[in-house]
Structure formats: C-alpha cells, structure tokens
Amino acid sequence: MKAFLLLGLLAFALAEVKRFDGEKVLRLKPVIDAHVTLIKELAGSIEVDFWSPDSAELVNIGIDVDIHVPAPYLELVSTMLQQSDMETEVLIEDLQASIDAATGPTPRAHSYTNYNSWDKIQSWIDAISASNPELIRQQEIGSTFEGRRMTLLKLGKKSSSTKPAIFMDCGIHAREWISPAFCQWFVKEALSTYGSDSQMTSLLDQMDVYVLPVFNVDGYDYTHKSNRMWRKTRSRNSGTNCIGTDPNRNWNAGWCSKSAVQTGASRNPCSETYCGSRAESDIEVKNVADFIREHKSIIKAYLTVHSYSQLILFPYSYTYDLAADHNELLKVSEEAASVLRSLYGTRYTCGPGAATIYPAAGGSDDWAYDQGVKYSFTFELRDTGRYGFLLPESQIKATCMETMLAVQYIAAYVQKTL
Question: What integer best gives the mean pLDDT of the chain?
Fold first, then answer.
C-alpha cells in the first residue's frame, strides 16, 4: 500500500512539472516600424515569453528580439512572420530538448560544475561556512515570501575593526541559472586561493566581500521543481491570480514612473517586468536593500550577476542621463571586459544600461549607485542567444573562470581607491 501511495505522489509531482515540448525560441530582426508593430501586436494577442529584451514595450528598430513561442501558437506566428518579410532565425528548435540537454545526470552531492538545486546550495552554504571560520561566516538577512532563509556569506579575514566591503548578488531572476553558479564558484575560488594568490589574499585581508548566492530563492527553487522558465519572485499579488514581481524592477530607482512603459517596467501584475505594488514591496528586495542601507558607509562596490548577453553595465538604466562617474565606470568596465576576454576570447560589451541595451526602471545597480555606492555594475554572463537561459553545464567552468578575472579586476581597482 505504501509503495502505491509513493508512486501516486511521485506521479502527481511529475505531472506538476511544466514541459515545453516542441516550443521554439526565435530571434526576430525588426528593421522597419511595421516589424515593431507586428511584434507588439503578437505580444498583446498571444502568450509570448520575451527573452531579450524583457518585454514588448522595449522592442525597437535595430534591436534583435528573442522570443519563446508556445507550441499552440507556432503555426500562427510563423505565418505572420513570413507575411511580414521580417528576418527570423530559430535559436532553439525544441525548448524541452534544450532544457534536457543543458544538464547532465544530477550528482547526489553539490558540484561547482552543475546547476545545483536550492536544497544543495543551502547545505553547501552551511558546510562551507563551517570549513574556515577565519575567512567565511554566514549571516541571515531575512526570509523570502515563502519562508526560505536568505543567507549572506561574508568573506574576509577576521578583523577587530570594520573593513570596507564589496557586495555581490546572484540569481535575481530565477531562470538565469549560470548566475548562482558563478557566486558559488567565486566563494570556492576565494577560499581555495587565499594564501597562495597574492591578489585574493590582499583583497580578503583588506576588505570583506558579501556574497548572496541566490537572491530570488523561491523563484530559483520553482525553476528546479515546476517551471524552468520562471523569472519573477513567487509573491502573491492582490486582486489577481498572477504571481510574482520582477525583483529587478522593484527598487526605488526611477521606480515605475509615469513613463514606465518607456523604461522597461510594468504595472500589470501578469507582466514579466511587473514592478510591484510599491518600491521594495517584495520582501527579498527589502531584505537586501535594508542590509545595504545599514552598511552603505562601508560598501564600496555593488556587483549583480545576471544572464544572458555578455555585457558589463553600469548606471543608469532608468534614465538616459549619464552618471556623474560615467567616464571612470566606463573605463573600469572596459578594462574588466578586456581581462575577461584574455582567457577564452569571449567578448563583452560595456556601457550604461539604458543606452547600451534598453531602459529598465527600478534596477538594483541604479539604486545602489544612488545610495552612494560608486562602483555599481551589472554582469550579463554568457551567451549571446545560442543557448540563452539554457547555457549547458559544460560551459559553467569556462564562464566562471573568465568572469572571475573581471570581478577580481574590479575588486583590485576598488581596493586601490581606498
């Protein structure tokens, strides 16, 4: 009887996992106004998942548009695109096949070259915190909407005095799995090279590095258990069945202004770029914002890691106005990108968010900069669309190794300014 019950529960659990068989990811290349209008009309009439840019409102002439089209709409979309004469490329032929191919057999233990589940990451946080108490401590900064703990890892040699710090978070958007993989890699490298690598040793002697391995814990867990393509948090929104807020549109930095349609944020709770009912309405954002506000006198740099597009961005994204420190931030980002490229030849583009890709109000790097954290950068890791959010596990190591060089460059630069 127990065996039958367990099988029944397993079947129910499996049935709850959303599948994407036969669904495609297309790259559209709008070059005239009619193409832009068509894409926006498609988004308004059928269910389209925008991979890049984040929403239909940001579609414009000359910007490649990557969209995930559900199977029931493929024939309709294909016909409309053919009639429009818009150049179209199939990036992913079968989304479910790509999801399955991106990950290999799941190891029982935590691995730095696999996409680990939240349960494994949580156990890893506890284990690695206990491994070297002179260099690493954990600090809980609050709980998520669904009650999971948000744990920071504080890296740095213990000191009797307060040290300047760098804050880095990964996994704001749930489906960007390469992002949390990098934060875990960074922690591993920091601990394993301290004492042998002069740059890392100097960094951890002189500064602390706060690492939030997974920002959007509820969403990340949901991508592993239910819907690989989920982006937002899992908070409930009043008056609607639509779930979640975009945690990178929920910061008080040009938050959902009257021009939000032009700045990449939406007041529609069903939108992937929903900005929330108010700035910091989502508890995850508030927890991190509270921590940074409390420590902003010592935080000298803010790094937030996303995917995909191969970019190093800096403020501003909520306005086309240049940041007061634009020239310096551009120089630092370009040097970091150059160091990154030296390993495998991977090319990154650098610049202020709004002008480099598209406007996006309510982002964390803009907010941190406006709080006085001068060196605020957003990394968009590999790739440029071939795999998109489904970067194969076989690329985790190379992606992390090259990104490590860029992050260490920025950290060393910040050190020199102290």
Answer: 94
How far, in Å, are 69, 77, 94, 157, 203 from residue 26 at the CA level?
8, 10, 11, 48, 43
**Identity at 400, one-letter amino acid code:** C
Which pair of structure tokens corresponds to residue 361?
């109000």
pTM attached to this predicted model: 0.94
- Which residue is it, tokens 């799995």? 177
* Per-residue pLDDT at 258: 65
Q: How confident is the model at residue 159 (pLDDT cuts 50, 70, 90)?
A: very high
Q: Which residues are catalytic?
A: 380
Q: How confident is the model at residue 98 (pLDDT cuts 50, 70, 90)?
A: very high
Task: Give how far Cα 235 sits from Cα of 170, 179, 241, 243, 316, Å.
Answer: 19, 21, 11, 6, 27
Give me the sign of the Cα torsion angle 73, 249, 116, 113.
Answer: positive
Coil, helix or strand at residue 86: coil
Burial class of residue 196, CB neighbours in 10 A (0-12, 13-18, 19+): exposed
Q: How far apart are the first and last CA of the chain?
A: 67
DSSP annotation of 156 = S
